[in-house]
C-alpha cells in the first residue's frame, strides 16, 4: 500500500502544470512506496490559484508562500516561480524541514548558488554538543593569553564571508576605539573576505581588534567562554530571515550573551530564550549601542548567558534534535534515504 506524499506547489505557470500532470500520473508508470497528493497550490491571486486547483485537483490554495511552507500537512515544496525567487523560497523550505523540488536555476548566479549551500546547512536546526559547548574552566587563563584582562571582549567566530557583512563590525570598532577603549574585538575564523576585512582594519588603524585564523574545533569553546559577548552577523536581506546560525546556538550553550544582527527566525529563538540583544543588520550605531549597553552591565550579561544556556539544554541538545531528525527520515520515501 502506497503512503501519501503531500505536495505544496508554488507557482502555476507552464512548469507548474507539467509537474502537476507528472504527480497525477507517476504511479501509473512506476511502482513507488509513495503516492503524490496534490495538497495545496500557492499563487498571489486567490482567484487564479483557485482555478488552477480546481483544474488539477489540489485540495486547497494559499496566497502567501511562507504560509504554505509553514503548514504541517505539507511534505514537499515544489518551486515553479520566476527564477529570481527560487533561492529565497528554497532556503525557507529547507529551514522548515521540507523536501524540495526546485525548477532550475536554484539561484541567479553560480556564486549565489554556491553561497546558498552553506546557508541551507546553517539554517537547519542542528543540535548543539552541549558538553563541548559549555562554560569552560580555563576562562581566566584564556583571557590572559588574549591580553583581555580588564577588557570587555566581544568575540566573532566562524566564516568571514560575503554574507556576513563584517564591514559593520569594523566601523563599530573604529567608533568604540575612541568612545570606549575598554572594548576589544576578537575574530576567529577564515573565509573569502578575511584579507579584505583585515585590510579595512589596518586602514582604520584599529588597535582594538585581533584576528586569529581558523582554530581546532575543540578549542573554540574556550575562546567563546573567554569572551564577554558574542556576535552573530549577516547582511540585511530577506533571504537570511530563515537562517538559524549554528554559532548563535553554540554561544548560547556556552552561556554567553548574544548580540544578534540577523532578523527573522534566529531573532525569534533568541528572544524566546531571552539570551541577547537584537540589532538591525548592517546598523553600525545599533551595534555600538548594544556593545556599550552590555559593557556597562555585567549583571545583564550574566543573566542573558544563563538563560541562553538553559534554553539550549531544553530545546537544542544533540539528543533532542537527533530524535527530531529520525522522525523526518522515517517519513522519507525509501529511495530518497
How does this model look, in words?
This protein has helices at residues 14-29, 46-56, 65-70, 86-95, 110-123, 139-145, 167-179, 194-203, 220-226, 246-253, 265-273, 284-295, 298-315, 318-330; strands at residues 3-10, 34-42, 60-62, 76-79, 99-102, 152-157, 183-188, 209-212, 229-233, 258-261, 276-278. By secondary structure, the chain is an alpha/beta fold. It has 2 domains: 3-124, NAD(P)-binding Rossmann-like Domain (Rossmann fold, 3-Layer(aba) Sandwich); 139-318, Rossmann fold. The chain starts with a strand and ends in a 7-residue tail after the last helix.
CATH class bucket of the largest domain? Alpha Beta
- Please trace the helix and strand order, writing H or E for each element: EHEHEHEHEHHEHEHEHEHEHEHHH
Mean pLDDT: 89
Unreliable residue stretches? 332-337
Give the tally of β-strands. Answer: 11
How would the blueprint of this fold be written?
Layout: E1 3-10, H1 14-29, E2 34-42, H2 46-56, E3 60-62, H3 65-70, E4 76-79, H4 86-95, E5 99-102, H5 110-123, H6 139-145, E6 152-157, H7 167-179, E7 183-188, H8 194-203, E8 209-212, H9 220-226, E9 229-233, H10 246-253, E10 258-261, H11 265-273, E11 276-278, H12 284-295, H13 298-315, H14 318-330
Parallel strand pairs: 1-2, 1-4, 2-3, 4-5, 6-7, 6-9, 7-8, 9-10, 10-11
Helix pairs in contact: 4-5, 6-9, 7-12, 10-13
Amino acid at each position: 500500500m502506497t503512503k501519501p506524499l503531500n505536495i505544496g506547489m508554488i507557482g502555476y505557470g507552464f512548469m507548474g502544470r507539467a509537474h502537476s500532470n507528472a504527480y497525477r500520473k507517476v504511479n501509473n508508470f512506476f511502482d513507488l512506496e509513495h503516492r503524490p497528493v496534490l495538497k495545496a497550490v500557492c499563487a498571489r491571486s486567490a482567484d487564479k490559484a483557485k482555478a488552477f486547483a480546481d483544474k488539477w485537483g489540489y485540495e486547497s490554495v494559499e496566497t502567501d508562500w511562507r504560509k504554505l511552507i509553514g503548514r504541517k500537512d505539507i511534505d514537499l515544496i515544489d518551486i515553479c516561480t520566476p527564477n529570481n525567487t527560487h533561492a529565497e523560497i528554497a532556503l525557507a523550505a529547507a529551514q522548515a524541514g521540507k523536501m524540495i523540488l526546485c525548477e532550475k536555476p536554484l539561484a541567479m548566479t553560480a556564486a549565489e548558488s554556491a553561497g546558498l549551500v552553506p546557508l541551507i546547512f546553517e539554517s537547519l536546526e542542528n543540535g548543539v554538543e552541549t558538553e563541548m559547548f559549555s562554560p569552560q574552566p580555563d576562562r581566566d587563563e584564556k583571557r590572559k593569553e588574549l591580553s583581555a584582562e580588564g577588557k570587555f571582549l566581544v568575540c566573532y567566530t566562524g566564516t568571514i564571508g560575503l554574507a556576513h557583512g563584517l564591514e559593520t563590525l569594523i566601523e563599530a570598532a573604529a567608533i568604540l576605539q575612541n568612545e570606549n577603549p575598554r572594548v576589544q574585538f576578537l575574530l576567529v575564523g577564515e573565509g573569502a573576505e578575511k584579507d579584505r576585512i583585515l585590510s579595512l582594519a589596518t586602514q582604520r588603524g584599529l588597535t582594538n581588534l585581533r584576528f586569529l585564523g581558523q582554530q581546532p574545533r575543540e578549542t573554540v569553546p574556550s575562546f567563546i567562554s573567554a569572551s564577554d559577548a558574542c556576535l552573530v552577523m549577516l547582511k540585511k536581506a530577506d533571504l537570511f530571515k530563515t537562517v538559524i546560525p549554528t554559532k548563535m546556538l553554540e554561544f548560547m550553550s556556552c552561556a554567553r550573551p548574544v548580540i544578534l544582527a540577523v532578523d527573522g527566525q534566529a531573532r525569534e529563538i533568541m528572544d524566546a530564550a531571552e539570551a541577547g540583544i537584537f540589532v538591525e543588520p548592517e546598523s553600525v550605531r545599533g551595534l555600538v549601542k548594544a556593545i556599550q549597553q552590555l559593557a556597562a552591565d555585567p549583571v545583564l550579561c550574566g543573566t542573558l548567558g544563563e538563560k541562553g544556556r538553559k534554553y539550549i539544554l531544553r530545546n537544542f541538545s544533540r539528543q533532542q534534535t537527533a530524535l527530531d531528525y529520525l522522525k523526518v527520515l522515517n517519513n522519507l520515501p525509501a529511495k530518497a534515504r
